[in-house]
Amino acid sequence: MKIFFSFISILFTLNTIIAQQITLQMDRAKSELNRRGEVYFCFKLTDFSKLSALSREISVSNIKGDTVFAYANQKEFSDFNRSGINYVVLTAPSELQAVQMTDNPKQVLTWNYYPTYPAYESLMQQFASDHPEICKMITITTLASGRKILALQISDNVNTEESEPEFLFSSTIHGNETTGYILMLHLADYLLTNYGTDQRITNMVNNFNIVICPLANPDGTYKGGNNTVDGATRYNANNVDLNRNYPDPQDGPHPDGNEWQPETVAFMDFAGQNTFTMGANFHSGAEVVNYPWDTWSKLSADNAWWTYVCHEYADTVHLNSPVGYMTLYPSGITNGFAWYRITGGRQDYMNYYQHCRESTIELSDAYILPASELIPYWNYNYRSFLNYIEQSGYGLRGLVTDSMSGDPLYAKIYISDFDKDSSFVYTDPQVGDYHRLLKGGSYDVTFSASGYLPKTIPIEITDKQTTMLDVQLSKIEDYISEILIFPNPASNGRIAIKSGNPIDLLFIRDITGRILYSSSPVTNNLLIECPWPSGIYLVQVQIKGKWISKKLQVINQ
């Protein structure tokens, strides 16, 4: 009996300790939510089939073994608590150590400091003013705080829309993931200062339209005030995870249950005003190259291309970094859904809705990298940055124009039996240029535009090479120069002749010029008996006062 009561006493004591721990963690979570608007925590998960549902409630940031690391705002944490899963509240990564800050833009360029917000804005302006012929600063939006989402456009004719790939690098959509923030400033400086002296960089700036947005969530990064990144938050000023706030191809326009945030609306507008061919969104908290899709398990049409390009990025990193860097997965890359599912992410939005090939690149395990490590991480990655930009110039590209006027067309480029889930692309309507990034192989590519007759053309693609193909489309109502005759060759029967406009006169002649058939006037569509001997004949039509000729082959048995 004494043993029984001892067991009961021990069990009661354990339950009391567990209850106290749960209360302690709950109190810590409440304190963090009141102080910062978000809480960082981890929990064990033995049944990972539950993770997909949990990822709709909280913002998962990483998984290590059976431990899930996540963030949540007040509502998200309340939803998570209903799961009954025990958790441990963690110190926010941005409060683990102080980083070196400077308010001197020139000091930022030594790459051993983080800029204050005023220094960041000054540095962006300085890039543009020091290199006005190849660089301009763009204000994507000004937030209620007065902070701005800024971008640099770098190209040889920076104020002119040209037939060239439009490329986008952006970083720090999560405000406490700042490695990419500084590395993108470093990249802008590298491109601008090496233009005209380094042939590779000069060619890149001359042949690409490069846009760099170093800081997509300034309110999160400078949550602790404009003079420090200490205390930075993942979420924005409204405590919303911006990388869960985009329209999602699987879960609809508002997958996180929040209205689109000012940052989200501004960026969607910015993406819609441009025709980005390719891009990447930089994060930290892990080290891996993550490619589409995040929202569903099915692979993208371009999965072979994605793995090829991402391997190039990671393989180059592995050649230029210490053993163990970017090895969350042994190859350094992962399909997004295979890592963990998210909905409302920027990557899937850009691929599905904007037809831009965008990946998510996690640059460092540390969310906020110590300033002393910024130069080493630059050296690990900058060659891969350059390779990645250059990939946007390969594959199939050219102009789609009106066959009569030469005007650029807003056209769709689609590959039958290949494209799926919005993987087709469109031309830039201002210039008519298109850029279809493809893995080496054979493809039948269809070009179409509203009011025009489509064309399908077989093409061959070679990896890391550019196949140029300009295409002219004819208006349906002005389809004169390419009247349709079918079947052609004709055999023992009738031929049909089609035109977009009524035919005024029609003649069919033999090779001597003798008229075998004539008609005037006729409609757009005509059926004609062809009892003539095998041979080549000439069909002549007059449409809108213009004479058009086309050969007809007859094969009679």
Features:
28% strand, four-stranded antiparallel beta sheet, 13 helices, 29 strands, 557 residues, eight-stranded mixed beta sheet, alpha+beta
Structure in words:
With 557 residues, this protein is an alpha+beta fold. 27% of the residues lie in helices and 28% in strands. The chain has 13 helices and 29 strands. An 8-stranded mixed β-sheet has the order 7-8-10-9-11-14-12-13, sandwiched between helices. Strand 5, helix 4 and strand 6 form a beta-alpha-beta unit. The chain starts with a helix and ends with a strand.
Biggest sheet strand order reads 7-8-10-9-11-14-12-13
Oligomer: single chain
Strand content is 25-35%
- Helix run count: 13
Low-pLDDT runs of 5+ residues are none
State the distance separating the first and last CA atoms.
110 Å
Major sheet attributes: 8 strands, mixed
What portion of residues is helical?
25-40%
Number of strands: 29
**Overall 3D form:** elongated
Name the average pLDDT.
92
| Rg from Cα | 30 Å
- Structural class, from secondary structure content? alpha+beta
Question: How would you sum up this structure in a few lines?
Answer:
This protein has 557 residues and is α+β, with helices and mostly antiparallel strands. It contains 13 helices and 29 strands.
